[in-house]
Amino acid sequence: MTFEAIVVDPRREPVPAGWAALARAAGLPATWDADVLAALAWCERHRRLLAVVADAGGAPCALFAARHVAPALRRGYGGSRLPGLLECHLPPAITQPGHAFHPDLDAAGRAEAVRVFERAAARRLGARAAGVVYRQVGADDLPAFRGLGRLVRPALPEAVVDNVWDGFDGYLRHLPRRDRRNLQRILRLVDRSPDVAAAVEDRLDGAEAARLLHNVQVRHSTARRAPAPFPAVYHDLLGGRPGVRYFTYRSPAGALLAYGLLVDDGRTMSCQGWGALDGADGGRDNLYFDHFLRQIAHLIEQRRGRLILGKTMTELKERFGARNVPLYGAAALRGAR
């Protein structure tokens, strides 16, 4: 099996045409669109690389999105020569995998595509890369990242709701009585509130969406330094694309109070972020819980297979009927390829 990888810096080089072709073949969501990723590359602190692995006939078989995370420079230390790690994930968050394979590629082909990518990335970065780290590897893809000298470790699982119902009422009936009553009460409170209007929108103003999301990030951050906000251009470019929906809550005057971003690839729906005002700034109670219920209702209505609720707060998400799906991190250190 002969593969070749093309690795580009999307700030300076065009993304190969094979990227869009494989994204269509694999049914990847709009978050994988090359122009979205190229725009985000200008907003990242670390250098972003995109790679297409193709077979001998030029047909694309694997995609990789990674950032080169180098140690912080220290004055007089020669930090620019210190090696870093190539971290494979989909921007702007680190909770989405940065690898995708053609659905017809077998296990041996996937493993070879991974190694061809790693060799090409090593040639591109030279001594500046000590290895490659892959985030959010699912169990089905895990064999491609195993091997001599390679590390695999469990990561935080993600909460997933499997769609096995004909309607939303059936979903509610399957929940434990206490959870069902609490969630139904939340739905009634939001539906009957004269101060909140719930809707589903195709797009939001990027700056407004980024501001509300950053507000939530800061509120829950345990780091000394506030997390970097998501770029406004992300929402500006993503909005209006197929499968992108914003579950919004607005005041009677139209002010955005909160929203949840949902991305649909035709099979799976994924929650991609929650932004909201604090109560002191006009935010409302119960909206976070309500938006999950509305997204589950949307899942059932659209007859998709599952909804990924994301990581953390697993006990809370289990109240919505979610199960925990194992994920892994994998690493290939320099010399193991």
Automatic annotation (TrEMBL):
<protein>
    <recommendedName>
        <fullName>GNAT family N-acetyltransferase</fullName>
    </recommendedName>
</protein>
<dbReference type="InterPro" id="IPR016181">
    <property type="entry name" value="Acyl_CoA_acyltransferase"/>
</dbReference>
